[in-house]
Amino acid sequence: MPQLRQNIITLDWVIIATERAKRPDQFGRTVKVEEIIPEFDSSCPFCPGNESTSSVEKYRFEKNGKWSLRTVTNKFPALIEDGDLNSVTSGIFNSMNAIGAHDVVIEHPRHNGTLTDFTHEETVSILNAYLRSYKELKKNKLIQSIVIFRNHGKSAGTSLIHPHSQIVATPIVPNQIKERIASAKKYYSKNHECVFCRNLNDETKSGERIICETSHFTAFIPYAALSPFHIWIFPKRHASSFHEITTDEISDLAFNLKTVLAKLKNGLNNPDYNFTIRSAPTQEKSGKFFHWYLALVPRISVAAGFEMGSGMYVSPAIPEESARYLREIDI
Amino acid sequence: MPQLRQNIITLDWVIIATERAKRPDQFGRTVKVEEIIPEFDSSCPFCPGNESTSSVEKYRFEKNGKWSLRTVTNKFPALIEDGDLNSVTSGIFNSMNAIGAHDVVIEHPRHNGTLTDFTHEETVSILNAYLRSYKELKKNKLIQSIVIFRNHGKSAGTSLIHPHSQIVATPIVPNQIKERIASAKKYYSKNHECVFCRNLNDETKSGERIICETSHFTAFIPYAALSPFHIWIFPKRHASSFHEITTDEISDLAFNLKTVLAKLKNGLNNPDYNFTIRSAPTQEKSGKFFHWYLALVPRISVAAGFEMGSGMYVSPAIPEESARYLREIDI
């Protein structure tokens, strides 16, 4: 019997479609992907030697006199840093200049690596680069929201192979984030607790959907995961924004994230994925009721007309089975 | 300068990314798709002769003693028609049985056709099949929402090639529809008019984003279209639900939709697409402030980490340019 489940945080309902459910090991790519990517590509704007072609450098980490990571502005930015908003309302049409920021973290000098290939120290420095951009951008009072994300693979929207992440800062709070804040606030008013903390406690108690628990983070498949192997990594300590992360927590997150990504790679045959770090709006006080987290979505199913027309999802994966499968995958 | 635009109906903001914008003719498939699909496939459950393999038939239209269209229940339904909801709340975990319906309209006996190949009369009978399912399902008091949709092509989520559409009825109002209703209600309270009617009037007055206007319908690219060539087809007459459509309007919609699809096919080299028909919840009174419509989304861009983490979209297409391009495409 197919089941409807509601996600208490997003309020979205998902249909767990048992009639068309697949076994966890059936979700991986069916064809082994053996792309041969060189360590260096002279035409890549992110490869060493082409620094001048990749737009303005914001900062770099160095090691042995060479850069090990660079943060630059996107050459084709979705939002730009200088200018006025010039907000215009003409009847029903609202617009403003897309002032904000669009940073790119070039994660490694190597052209062909990815997070699962990097050392712990290298992963830590990527997270530190996110943190640095976040803190820097947050100082701009025009900026209302900062989203950190990583697209891995073509079906996840990557246009450049060279390993990189992105940070986008917007001068408005996106509607979806507004709604999540409103619903978290409502939950807090009613229950005097953070809905994310509650969710994490209940998931930990149940244990069924946990993938990887480390000192400061818990990775799990939500009870009402919208798509197969949709994973949330929650910090155990309540904090509303990523920029509150401590040095110890960065190190622990690097370990947790790398573990989960390695399990996905081995268990599902290196799927494309996106991950994103969600925080509370930058200029609002949402300390008590909102909780930052990382959402990781492997691109192993396609949202179609039903999802588009309803905002609901049909998932052919049973969260408990998917989580058990990943828990047991060796890395 | 990239621009932020807000969609007055969904309240979503989109970034019109002028720095990475493409010319309208650059959005089509780059490779001409010349799949040779036979008129008949003996292994297809929807082809004539295999009627017994395609689950329960709800009704059929006949012509010259043979079926010309059949509506059946989905063999692997996301929701099933018989049973009790058995709604369970256990702490933060809400679930219920997925009781509802999942109909499939087998649009044509031919295995290889699609809407742009069908005659006007055939297209009318497809819309009539939607209407028949909608009216039938609406009688069930458990059902709260009905979504009609069509997935065209692999990247749009089609699993079977044989031309078909689907109708899904759910026992809850999806969260996204709830939010749209709430925002339409708010607009109505404040402005004493339907926000959709207002939108249509303003789009018609401006004319810049109109693709095809017929007696009863207007197809346009919304001012804040979330993705390239995202199209809305609005009925001119205010009505909150698809089932209120008249015979004349069905015929006019068939013509309008076929025209728009032919323009997409010729102008963008036969892109995959989804379309969906959105109506007000079935058991609620939302007559004055909600307006049904058809949304058509060609799959020519990939939503990535930013879209996932914010619910906002970055579109590399300028709606006015895209609409002008489609207006001028011959069919």
Summary, kept brief:
The structure is a homodimer of 331-residue chains. Chain A is of the alpha+beta class and 331 residues long. Chain A has helices at 120-138, 175-191, 195-206, 247-267, 305-310, 319-328; strands at 3-6, 13-16, 57-63, 66-73, 88-90, 93-97, 101-106, 145-152, 164-170, 210-213, 217-220, 231-235, 273-278, 293-298, 313-315.
Please describe the topology of this protein:
2 copies of one chain form a homodimer.
Chain A: E1 3-6, E2 13-16, E3 57-63, E4 66-73, E5 88-90, E6 93-97, E7 101-106, H1 120-138, E8 145-152, E9 164-170, H2 175-191, H3 195-206, E10 210-213, E11 217-220, E12 231-235, H4 247-267, E13 273-278, E14 293-298, H5 305-310, E15 313-315, H6 319-328
Parallel strand pairs in A: 2-15
Antiparallel strand pairs in A: 1-2, 3-4, 4-7, 5-6, 7-9, 8-9, 8-13, 10-11, 11-12, 12-14, 13-14
Walk me through what this model shows.
Two copies of one chain form a homodimer. Chain A has 331 residues and is α+β, with helices and mostly antiparallel strands. Chain A has a single domain (41-328), classed as HIT family, subunit A (2-Layer Sandwich). Helix content of chain A is 26%, strand content 24%. Chain A contains six helices and 15 strands. In chain A, the strands form three sheets. In chain A, strands 3-4-7-9-8-13-14-12-11-10 form a ten-stranded antiparallel sheet, sandwiched between helices. In chain A, strand 5 (88-90) and strand 6 (93-97) form a beta hairpin. In chain A, helix 1 (120-138) crosses helix 4 (247-267). The model of chain A has no long low-confidence stretch (mean pLDDT 94). Strand 1 (3-6) of chain A pairs antiparallel with strand 6 (93-97) of chain B.
